[in-house]
Amino acid sequence: MVCIRTVAYNAEKTLRRAMDSVLNQSYSGDIQYYVYDNASTDNTKAIILGYAEKDSRVIPIFNDVNSMYEADKRASCIDVLERCLKNDNDYYVSLDADDAYEPTFLEDMLGFMEENQLDVAACGSHYIDTASKQLRLERKLDDDLILAGNTFGTYFPQYHQFMRTIWGKVYSAKVLKKCEFKHMNDVRYGIDTVFVTDAFRHANRVGILGKSLHNYYISRKSVSYKWDQARTKSDQILHANAFDYLREKVGFISKANYDFLYMVYFYAIKDTLNVLLNTGMPLPEKLRQIHEILTCEDTSQLLRLRHPQIRAELESVFDRVQAFILSQKEARKPDNIKITVDIYFAMYPDLSQLIDKENLEYLLIKMPDITQYIVRKEYGLILEGIQTWFKRHKQDDIPLTKLELSTYQALNKPDEALLLLLADIKKNRPHAFEALNIDARFTDLMKKSPLLKDMSADLGYALLQVVCWVMKHNYTKALELFVSIEELHIADDDLEPYILFGQNLSATAEDMNAYIYFKKVWISYLLDCARVSDAGQELDAFKEILPDDEDFIELQHRYDQMAT
Questions:
Q1: Which of 108, 143, 221, 465 is the most buried (most CB within 10 A)?
Q2: Does 147 reside within a domain?
Q3: Contact 96, 75 (CB under 8 A)
Q4: How far is CA 183 from the centre of its chain?
Q5: Could you give the CA distance from residue 283 to residue 330 in angstroms, rounded to a whole number?
Q6: pTM above 0.85, yes or no
Q7: Is residue 257 within a helix (H) or strand (E), and if so which, with residue range?
């Protein structure tokens, strides 16, 4: 006995095509065709009754309530299994009310099963556009594939596509009686996949026939294009179920199968996000669903894998989510902004290298368009946007200043450019200067040069252009500018570093005259500070080199007076 099941809801336009394809099979054996009217409001019930009156193989069943996702057992495949699969030699087949089987489907499939002693057999499908009736694609294998033992793991990526849908297959009653279908009540989307996975799990031998004997008619009215609140959780359950299947079936999960399953998961959440973004629901709930998809552990692991095959597609999906968020002012209001920021950080974990959550929250409210450049790491455009804003507004903005500094670093701007920015912040943005500890950043930069490592921030600001030339390693230009400064107010604490800098810069620039000049200033400073011993050591070095230099003679005289 072959038991066939079709569930129809408002299918008056397609049901005859489906039923005719079953009742006109070339197979000559016994058929029981269970056709469920799922509380239709059109002519579906009358069509079923008409066929049942003419053909005793049609068994009509009518539901009082439309159980769209088959929560009602009366419309489920379990009901058919209990009704008619009494003998282990019986078979079960499913067909949607808008699809059709080729006339030789049963004959070819049952022959294939008998020849290869199969528990389950699958065939290929033609995908036909409902509107144009044109063939869009064909999903089939080039050759027959027989699965047994370890080959369930070896060929998993090749046959997995046939595990997603219940139709296009023949199942032996023997294997279905072993199935528990334990996840049937856990998912609302992907029930077919749960059914087939359980059948494959309990089957000893499965065959994929290299022929297309099923016609799938593509329609936007399909459940695949409709939103259900449980769909997000269903993706996660199906992902885990596939892992469990491989572990139970072959005892381990190879690297190839591991990567493949995450590719499958990606395409599942991609479809789910597309449906979600297009569905009508209150924005807070939509954001919550997006957040759940993007922050669950499965998605986090997918992002950590950085799979090269899906990287570009992943960015495209995330760009669409971001565009949706930017188009929704409500997403940037106080009640929703935190979950919006969490969505951003889930999609783009590297954001933390440039900006923290608090500052991104601020930007989404104040300058939402600039976030597009941030997630794409278009640092030049980020910097251009920030600097344009500062020119227009002349405001002391701490978060934007922080982002400006991070962008400079991300762009690997030269140290001297960053020094100039820090000096500008000190001059024009006092709140940002204090909040972001600009002095410490400035001195840390100067410490990169041995000539500047002992210089204070205040002295660095005072000698800003000189410092920049030093950072560019143009010591001659730095010295030229340094000695040309006519008026410079130097704090007492900075006087010694200032003189030593002049001395060391002269030596580095190999300018002997300047070096001698600053050496004289240094000795005079030591004497002014009563550091007589240090001054004497310095003078001893020049007694033989410049014995007739009037300045050194005068400094020696001062030293002698202080030493006695």
A1: 108
A2: yes
A3: no
A4: 28
A5: 8
A6: no
A7: helix 255-278
